[in-house]
Structures
1.
Amino acid sequence: MKIDWIPLALVPLLALAALPLVGSLPTWVTLTVAGLAMGMMIFLMASGLTLVFGLMDVLNFAHGIFISVGAYGAATVLTRMTKEMQAESLASDLSAMVPAVLAAMALAGVLGWFFERVLIRPVYGDHLKQILITMGGLIVFEQLIHVVWGADIIPLPRPGTITGSFIVGEAAIERYRVAAVVVGVLVFAAMWAVLNRTRIGLLVRAGVENPEMVESLGYRIRRLFVGVFVAGSALAGLGGAMWAMYQEQVTPAMGMQVLVVIFIVVIIGGLGSVGGCFVGAMLVGLMANYTGYLAPKLALGSNILLMVLVLLWRPRGLYPVGRA
Amino acid sequence: MLIRLLSGDLPRSRVLAVILILIFLGLALAPFVFPGTRSLNVAAKVAVFILLVASYDLLLGYTGIVSFAHTMFFGIGGYGVGIAMAKMGSGWFALTTGVLTSFLLSLLIALAIGLLSLRVRAIFFAMITLAVAAFFQILASQLSAFTGGEDGLSFRVPEALRDRLTSYYVVLTVAAALFLALLRVVNSPFGRVLLSIRENEFRSEAIGYRLVTYRTIANCLAALGATAAGVLYALWLRYTGPDTTLSFNIMIDILLMVVIGGMGTMYGAVLGATIFVVAQNYLQDLMKLASGAASGIPLLPQVLHPDRWLLWLGILFILCVYYFPTGIVGRLRR
């Protein structure tokens, strides 16, 4: 397989280009780690969206709901395990975090299954209706979140072992960000391995290229759809849980707030491309942190600027996928 | 005369005709039939949203493209007037400058978005407009010296518009005239081409119509309609802020109104906007009663809580998309 290195090289290039602008090395290190951590979390949230689009040609505008639900699932578990959270040991922190993350993924996965079965199945192949239906799902489920968890912001304390920072040289690096990078890399590696080294991954990749062919070879592409949709939703739930711990609070609208950034990442990466989504997420994360430091007023618009630049260069995203 | 005014596009259903006449009479006589500030506000909002939703229907219902930037154009109208009136005084000159500037800006942005992203698939356009609209919302809150940030701008309107009654009828007349103009557009040969693009873009292109041109013109017309609605709303409220014009919630409201009223019918905009705005203002009172009656039963009171009215409209929306793609109007016309 030939790898297109140019988009991949953009990430270190962007980081290096920012170094003289930022000026001081320790600040740059802090910003870079923060950017990568943010990028990893965005990648977790966006990967499911892009995979679902690639395989099923469905753009799920309600993807933000899985993020919110994941965050609420994690918050529900964590706020009940205050004792484990307060004990200053890694083992006890993990005993609270692992169930919280699992709960987030399970809840988002189940919701994803429901979404695929009930809402999206009748409108495969009709983009206009897909957009409308998923918007409707977004409205209804955002309201249901209000019903179940209430409309107030839930504060979410971070476990002791991953708060605070390391000092490396003169640079302060928040521990949580390192943890986020580690989780992000692990998930990306796992996804890459599943997609490229297993039979299921082979079928998914073949399905992205040509679903009719896969079906005519006797594989049930519908089951593959459901599986990918549930997995994508669970990943969004994981991302939502991590994003909530990063923000240290949970709000009903949080999924929708992140969704715009996620769309930008998916467009930058090329609709349907997991690798492109990863590169796009890193670029967006880094860009947001550098501009946040250099020109705070521009920070929120920098993503749009990045998207426009990428689209001018490659109109179908960094890694265009099969069908036009 | 009436048929010409409606561009030959009659309601084609007796019930629908009666409802439309009732809505028209209700709006025209609102200050006398429903006295009180609240009901006059509701009536003005209905008039403005009929125009806003009708212009969105031109895009969604007639051309078959989903845009999430409609509130942005609504906001450009509101902010154009707001900024001009707040900085240049409350004369007619400031008003005209504000209106013209905002129309020009809307036209340019709609043209740019259209030419850049309407070449590709509908889904791409939806995402791009979502991103651009989010960017615009950020811009409005960041440039607070200019736009008043989160607080928005309050301003004074020209002397002649200060009387509530006069200004209500100005809003109503302009909204009605522009609605009729939109009806004219969709019933013109141009509108037929839009419909053909919605039904089968490949075939329309094969016949010789340039998709990009027609879609971009539709996008520009819709943007201008939304800008006009924004101008009217700002003049009525004498205030412009992110929550009244730019917020994503309004975009969701517009979608609900178009789909529940009926996509691709124009009259659907009238029904959808009226039902939605009235529900927004009065359904909550009703739900308060229901919620009180259901107290004691688990979960039901929360679901019927007055703040959850959007939940029920959302469910109605989904049912509409599945079972009544042409909404209430389509149902009545059967």
Note: Residues 23 and 49 of chain A are 37 Å apart (CA to CA).
2.
Amino acid sequence: MRLSFFLGEALGSLKRNWVMTMAAVLTVFTSMAILGSVLVTDKNLNQGTTALKNRVEIRMFLKDAVLGTPTQQALETMIAHDSQVKRFEFVSKEAALQWVKDNMGSEVVQFLNTNPLPASYNVYVKNAGQIEQVATRYYNNPAIDEGGATADKPHPGVTFAKETVRKMLGTINLIEKGMWGITAIFALAALLLISTTVRLSIFARRREIEIMRLVGATNWFIRWPFVLEGFVTGLAGSLLATAGIWVLNLAIVSWIKTSGIGYLHPVDYPIIWGGGRPGLLVILGGLGAVLGGVGGGFALRRYLRV
Amino acid sequence: MIVFENVTKIYDPDVIGLADNTFHIQKGEFVFLVGPSGSGKSTLIRLVLKELEPTEGRILVAGRNLGTLRRSKVPLLRRNIGCVFQDFKLLPTKTVYENVAYALEVVGEHRRAIRRKVPEILSLVGLGDKMNSLPNEVSGGEQQRVSVARAFVNHPPLLLADEPTGNIDPETSIGIMQLLLRINRTGTTVVIATHDRDMVNRMRKRVFALDAGRIVRDERRGAYDEPAEEVTDEA
């Protein structure tokens, strides 16, 4: 293959039809930018979900009377050996009081002469979905203070954000599915747009193609410049999109980190390679270039029938 | 060089292009196809190029049966046939030089050979000084000479011309015809479809007269019109 000849043909034609080229590059840019945003958002959403899931905890309030007794020891052993528990921490009465002082102001507790706050275990489960199952196991444990039980809240000694967790996970799930749905639609739109753009450019040059065939050019001889043209167009559009997404990603991440929701741990999407997975440049650039090349080659088909 | 055996071409729905023609054109011959518009001249040429398939009959070009020629081999067939058209069919975005060079790029000619052959053939057709012009920057006659140069740069054994002088003035036409004659002298078979009565009468070459898709006259050293109705035109 005479690459330099084909490349020269492709670049020359891109330059001559620069309006068309711009249109095609912008098309690819738009599609790839959308795809890129979805990738980045999805990754961050995953990260955010994980971060939120990690914050889901069960609180078990202890009777003051069992503190330091074998009963408390038995509960702690049970938690420590629970296979669904990731980690747990003990919050003493003093620590609880300190937390109240720190978070609500010392005025709130300054007139108390005894510490009314119970000690507690904060238990983090491995899978947020199983939180209820885990919590149930500790109902009616002798160390837990079940005082003040009502019909609505039969187990006030073991609390967890049941409804909140369920709704949150459900919403995140829905958002994730929706995003991939949108991605699929836009990927399809991108394919059609690229193919249409190339077809328009070919339609404008069908006379040239006819002449090439009359001079005895083989189909691949005619096709290569168009494939390269699509390839270059796709690559240019995706590179622009990558640059745009990357800058936007950086901006948003730094904004999130400095605002109140930093616990979501936003991440920069890797550019070339990261964590064993291809980065933005590789995914978008590769996809754009391949889509362009394939689109260019395919769109020619009907003009190459002998 | 070209053999037609009972070749019929019917266009959809039932327009007759060619009706049951049989003829042989020998290697090195110079043949005029004459006849009114729609008589089948262009159909004949396009059949030889395998741009069209005959409805019936067999066509051999340089010993190859076009009916059994695989689609992928069609470009190879065309590389052995030079083509000149009424509308020149030059690539508008390429210079005169690049247009001729394209025919050589297609066959995979070496860059160095291209740099040697293209100026050679362009100066042969008298366009040595217009190599870097675009087709629309030169006159019709010059464009046609570019097209002849492109058709002949590969030295094909066969050259087809469909109304090569149809769009250019009589003076320039003579130049084009002389060019085609010179090409014929190198051994290339030349087949020209034309309306150019003066030219055919002056050259006295083999003439096929077509009418309604049928070859009605095949004369060795023929004229445009049948000998019986002697040439009486004022033009």
Note: The longest helix of chain B spans residues 170-185.
